[in-house]
Amino acid sequence: MTGDARTSSRKLDHLRICSEMNITAGSPGFEDVRLVHNALPECNLDTIDLSVNFLGRKLASPLYISAMTGGHPDTKEVNRVLGCAAEKYGLVMGVGSQRAALENPEHADSFRIVRDVAPHAFLCGNIGAVQLVTHGMNWVEPAIEMIDADALCIHLNFLQEVVQPEGDHNAAGCLAAISEVCKEAKVPIIVKETGCGISSEVAARLFDAGVSAIDTGGYGGTSWAKIEGIRAQNQNTAGDKTLTSLGPTLLSWGIPTAVSVFEVAKVNKGPVIASGGLKTGLDIAKGIVLGATLGGMALSLLGPALVSEDELRYAIDKIHAELSAAMFLCGAKDIPSLSKVRYYLTGDVRQMIQT
Ligand SMILES: Cc1cc2nc3c(=O)[nH]c(=O)nc-3n(C[C@H](O)[C@H](O)[C@H](O)COP(=O)(O)O)c2cc1C
């Protein structure tokens, strides 16, 4: 198989494994965050305002459709369904890594479909930090143009690279490449993790490099140790046997999302997206209270999107109803008021934040 065919078929493997198997690990820590109940809310549940400002744009809701797919013809339909929802609800949406289409332009339409069905949505392009080091602006500009992106996400996924049979092992030069792209690109740059979270130290280095926002992609949801462990098992060659055992060993590696949001927000140099294991509107509310502006979901939206547009609409309506209920019960009539709500921390999250 050629390199570009391998990238494309890997995207399909990921989609299949994520839709057919349990690929989550651990907890994002939201059970350790309790919002203070307001017995006298003094606001109206039916007029709760979910709108939020993000990177200069007003969005209808803080729900963010995290990067998932594109890059294989069979991924086009799920991207269409997700794009339709982004347009209907006025949400931010990230497409999956555009690497497959940058290696082989035949795959570009599996990404472009999102802009076709979501002409007004805030869309984020996506490339990996390792690819950024190799290709720089030669890939950044076409990635942005491919979907007329409003921002570009650079993903950090070094745990995945460690466990992936064909993973990239050289992480040197990523920060310099990110700094360069922040200077050159015509849209804001968002750096995201993909399931291991971002610490306050790394967040400070990224914001200092010129990054406009950080997406925590914390621990407690989709686990690439699991997904790549399953792929390595399926490939079943001698070298992959080592990887098959490495996956389970790294299953609990990462910063839980609630802790990562707290750490990145305390750096206080730019907006934070809480993501990694979010399942409900209540999780989004807790992310916002800990300092995030948006709450991202990948896996929780993938299942409904693979069923139908109606199923995805039902899932999004449910998330919005949960978020509105949590805001009402905190006495928060809008997102700025929610961000000031008091909270209690318990358990592991409390311990991790204090140390
Ligand atoms: C099927 C699938 C494919 C993904 N592909 C990408 C990708 O191409 N680029 C990326 O930055 N993140 C990718 N992610 C990671 C998500 O954007 C997100 O950071 C991570 O899954 C944690 O969120 P979750 O627990 O809500 O799934 C993918 C996630 C899933 C489930």
Which compounds are bound in this model? flavin mononucleotide
Percent of residues in helices: 40-55%
Low-pLDDT segments: none
Major pleated sheet: 8 strands, parallel, barrel
Strand content: 5-15%
Q: What is the CATH architecture assignment?
A: Alpha-Beta Barrel
At the fourth CATH level, what is the homologous superfamily? Answer: Aldolase class I
Shape: globular
**Largest beta sheet: what is the strand line-up?**
4-5-6-7-8-9-10-11
3D structure, described in words:
With 355 residues, the chain is an alpha/beta fold. The chain has one domain (3-354): Aldolase class I (TIM Barrel, Alpha-Beta Barrel), CATH 3.20.20.70. 50% of the residues lie in helices and 13% in strands. It has helices at residues 3-20, 76-89, 99-103, 109-117, 129-135, 137-147, 158-163, 174-184, 200-208, 224-235, 238-249, 257-267, 281-289, 299-307, 309-330, 335-338, 347-354, and strands spanning 33-35, 52-54, 57-59, 63-65, 92-94, 122-128, 151-156, 189-193, 213-215, 272-275, 294-297, 343-345. Strands 4-5-6-7-8-9-10-11 form an eight-stranded parallel barrel, surrounded by eight helices. Strands 1-12 form a two-stranded antiparallel ribbon. Strands 2-3 form a two-stranded antiparallel sheet. α10 (224-235) runs antiparallel to α11 and α13 (281-289) packs across α15 (309-330). The protein starts with a helix and ends with a helix. The structure holds flavin mononucleotide.
